[in-house]
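Re-run with default settings, no changes from the original entry. Doing this only to confirm the output is reproducible before filing.
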Amino acid sequence: MKKPLLIIGNKNYSSWSLRAWLLLKAFNIDFDEQLIELFHPSAIPILDKHAPTGKVPVLVYGQGDEKVTIWDTLAIAIHANDYLTDLDIWTGLSKSYPKSNISNRINSAYCQSIIAEMHSGFMGIRSEMPMNIRATAKIHPSAACLADIARIEHIFAECLTTRSSDSYLFGHFTAADAFFAPVILRLQTYAKASGIILTPLTEQYCQTILHNPHIQAWQKSAYEETRIIKEDEAGEILSVDGILAKQ
């Protein structure tokens, strides 16, 4: 089978692209990537060809009548788990691990639930703290945004005290870590600069994600981008890292 192609947006801004990309990387799925410029005319022909919703990410492979197209990050995760990896993305364990193990089933259910919650919710943090990897920015978070952060911290604490220790949310890297990774990058951009105090467990988990080699590779690429997308800039920009810092 020809390698799947993952079409993604600007790495500095596109949080959903990061989720799909990181999941494929973490579960050793070999793929090619094609980066498009968000909100730019050059992206239109590519999206028209491959993306039914006109959005990224989208994963495609095969030709003609056998072409497979998967859009939406959650759909990509489910498809990858079903067809593209020998690991179970909800537990991080081999699929040959006994499914009768009750703790495995409990963790899988919790993992799927918090992913679904992330996929459909947290509108406060999404709107007020858009992903902007190269920036440090100050915002004045609303009650809705702070409530989202509190809920996310509760999820982290529940996982790191009952399901894991000093590691990823379920010990092994799972799809939950991929789905929450952009939140960690948002917190890195806005939290300290905005006076948002995070719990020690959240700070611990932030360091776990920020030291992941795939996250570091994505950040490096983001620092090399120069395009500024006004729609995805928020708050008072205090500093910028990467190529733009040298201009």
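The longest strand covers residues 236-240. The mean pLDDT is 95.
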